[in-house]
Amino acid sequence: MQRFTTNKRSEVISEKQYDTTENQNLLWLANQMEVAEGMYNEPVSIQIKGNLNQKRLKKSLQYIVEKHEALQVNFVPTSNGLKQVKRDQLNIEMDFYDVSVYPLPEKTQILDTFLESILHKRFDLTSDILYRFQLYRLATDEYLLHMVFYHIIFDGWSLGLFLQDLEQSYSLHESFETTNYKNIHVYKELLQKHQNYIGTNDYIISEKYWEEKLRDALPWSAFPAKQKGKLVPSYRMDAFQRIINPVFINLVKQYAKKNQVSSYRVWLGIYLILLHQMTNQTDLTVEIPINIRSRDNKEQHVFGYFVNAVPLCIQLTTDETFSEFVQKTNSAVQEILVHQNYPLHHLVYNPAQKKEVTNNSLCSTAFNMVKLPSFKLGGLETKLLTHQKRVSNLDMVWRLVQTQEDVVNLEIDFNSSKYDVADIQNLMDRFQCLLQLLLQNSEIPLQNLDFLLPEEKIIYQNVNDTELLLPSYHSIQERFYKQVQRKPEAIAISTGDNKYTYQEINQRSNQVARHLLQSGIQKQERVAIFLERSVESIIAMLGVLKAGGTYVPIDVKYPSERIQYMLQDSQAKVMITNRERQQEVDCYQRHTITIEDVFTSVSGQDIPNQNRVEDAAYMIYTSGSTGNPKGTLLKHEGVLNLVEWRSRTFQITENDIVSQFYSHSFDSSVSEIFSALLTGARLHLLNEEQRFSAQAYCKAISMNRITITDVATAFFNQLATELSDAQLQQLRPLRVLSMGGEAASAASIRNWQLKLKDTVLLVNEYGPTETTVSSLYYPISKQVPNDSTHVPIGKPIANTNIYILNEHLQMCPIGVIGELYIESIGTAIGYHNQPERTAQSFVSHPFSTEPSARLYRTGDLVRLSQEGYVEYMGRRDRQVKIRGYRIELEEIEERLLQHPSIQQAVVMVYQNEKEQPQLLAFYKAIANKNRST
Length: 933
Prior knowledge:
Chloramphenicol Acetyltransferase; 5-stranded mixed β-sheet
């Protein structure tokens, strides 16, 4: 704890000098280094209607100041520490402003300006009167009494005392001067009592208790924010309030009485379950303020700052009932009350403890219930307005204010850089629905309750309204045949100066199929394709499909160990390659077919369809957590659905030219190839330079008049940030540019939109290999806001449903982060030869009555927006804990990307020399930016 040094003006020796409590010492320090003006200013307003006697009001306020010693002091550092010194002059000032002459809009603006200025006006604790009174005349018989107290001499309990005294003194205006000051000097005694507590046996016991509680960092329980907040912390608060339905108030009372707990602890239990519901955390922390006056009647009447804000830490288990959780909450509060007097900052700000406190607070949110006495001023009509605190070091403060027996107001102060009014209204709606649900089902385990609001269920239903009747094709090749029959001489594939018609591609793929059948390939057997990305590779794919087989593309650039593993794991008996690669593949001991020999040795006549829609069409290898890639088997049906959706959504016709960008061992190539060949469009293969050079890519788009292109998101970022306006103009033939593979950069998209406006439809596509390339998409038709750091992944494609679930497979509310599960016509058959991994990733559908229904578990963390768009938030396996704090690495990366000089950023966890986890950030600066910034 910092000690206070002598100040030239501060050495005061007087009988009027009082000790300070440890909490007052802390507020003194906060005042000296206050980062946000007015953070500890406490505003209160009283609306008054009637014939107000201003002199009587001022006299009443004078009486209150003279009665309560806390309102008579300043704070002065001395050689003996911080002291409170009573002022000699106690005459109050009550500023008067008449705004009744102004029209309503102007009057409101003037009033807001006045209230804002007094709220943020700093108090000099050494010399200022630590309260301010202002009276505003709003109309002939309408007034607003506005007051601001500095927190160091005022708390919520003091407000109740103030209102009682104001009512009594104003009503008994003829006799209140003779009222006996019953609590004179009790303030000083109470201060001394708390100072004497330091170092006692009770203090030591409580210190050990809190030391154990705070040994590890507390879980940071924060309501999900729609906005990430600014790089520079903002303490600005807004507020929203609502009167709670009296029916609910009575339900809580009845439940509390029946279960022998206080109403406050029932409300607190509901709040904590809401916090769990909105965060999916089971270890919860909330700040609760505790009145540390004893029950002694004298102390109950002491005005001042005698509250201790402490963290309530509680663990929720979803198999417990609401009744069990309320009892647990009750016990947790009772436990804290035993140690309520301990000044927590003795631990928190002790350098030896090495505690790290975000925003100088242990918690993100606070929950409190205040009971205020009924209040009247003579025969005047009055209404208490508990203004929100405009600045706070907390993200959100919940306050239940009970003004009458059955009148409870729910007030929420919230950080306006992270939340908006719609967020708070949603929380209030949810709180009231949760209240009713829990009280009516108090003996049912929490995990068995449906927490979704009715309107949220409608949003999910609308999002999943994706049913599309597909044309009655049985296989990919059957739809391809249809295009051949329609326009056999149309160009199917082009590359460089070479062009191939649909008839040519059909005949050559027929030759491959016949050769495979003659080689003894059986239906659904896997055939490896070991060819460069080429026309021949695509012909080989179609040939395998026509033979009824399943093609397995293998990139010729893979290491030999990986190739060997894929061949063995896939059990591919046949390998299609070319003469150039013949010797290279001999070591793999497979029956090898060279594509050149096929084209000269067998007939090119059509082959009857061999497949059904549920058969496997191809097997793509993706990275595996064990180090070995896993082979994913995808169906014909999934590809047909993907093509039908893309052709309708992007209006693909025979006049379109579709680029082929991706390696054929990557599943996005499936979308490119078949979106063209199954719709009658032309597929143009980009060469290697055009795939990796942004400049060469732009020239290729321009020269070949390409209208639809798919690229990796990282490549799009190059296009958007590294090319000149003139180079980007070469992309004007494009109608659609779809990106995918990683989270889209909002900054790159804004840069693109600035240069190319809306001439090209940008689409952010998302989809795991396991659900056939694409599952969700987001057409970026609007300007991306400057404060956005990410772009939604959108809504599900045709015949695809999405579920955002918590760890208990319950649907997550709107805005709450959960894991994305996908139900789709394109869901994979599974992982080849890996039944355990298949069972882990393809789980039983918890919301379907069909026994065979499955969901694919993506491992991606997402949330659903109010507009029905899915927002990608990171990987489940990229959640890390550093010193007890749960951290999303993607969120740190997003914050780094807000810096104007940073183009790309990656954050990783590594072990330092002490084997402790630390974060390490890598970034790429934007060219020509001042690196010193």
